[in-house]
Design a protein that fits this description.
The chain is an alpha+beta fold. It has helices at 38-41, 123-138, 143-156, and strands at 10-12, 18-25, 45-51, 54-61, 64-72, 79-84, 90-92, 95-97, 99-113.
Length: 157
């Protein structure tokens, strides 16, 4: 009996004409989908503090002090702001599969902590280490690499 493969989610990155430069990551939920002049209310500023080589920024959101840091995406990577496409979702075996369209792209993420100073040990900066590991694991092995490994094994024997 042949199993049907579920449809894959589609992502169209071609229309990303707006370069935001950076986006903000706040760990909170906002129940609003309308346009808002965020820059009129959310005004980050450099507070002159540096921790673990990271420049700390400060801002306030709904009266609560936030401390953040801007992290550049690694070379070769781009971030995208996606919006669910208005087309009808396809029904897969495991549920709905959506398609998305790119609305903007960015190269930097400013993440914000509520109660702690930003540091190199925060989850966002640490997750970028996995990109290096993934690239190394998935890099094709060349004949030269194999010869080098064979030579090292022979030296160790």
């Amino acid at each position: 009996m042949e199993q049907a493969t579920p449809p894959a989610a589609g992502v169209d990155l071609s229309p990303a004409a707006i370069d935001l430069g950076r986006v903000h990551l706040l760990s909170c939920g906002i129940r609003n989908n309308s346009a808002v002049a965020v820059s009129d209310y959310f005004k980050p500023r450099d507070n002159g503090v540096e921790v673990d080589g990271i420049r700390v920024e400060e801002s306030f959101f709904r009266g609560r002090k936030l401390q953040g840091a801007t992290v550049a995406l690694p070379d070769g990577y781009r971030g995208y702001v996606l919006e669910k496409n208005g087309e009808k979702d396809t029904q897969g075996m495991d549920g709905d599969v959506s398609s998305f369209v790119s609305r903007a792209e960015f190269q930097n993420i400013t993440y914000w902590n509520h109660d702690t100073m930003p540091s190199a040990e925060d989850p966002l900066p640490r997750c970028f280490h996995w990109l290096t590991i993934a690239n190394t694991m998935h890099k094709p092995v060349t004949a030269e690499d194999m010869a080098n490994m064979s030579a090292m094994q022979n030296r160790n024997s």
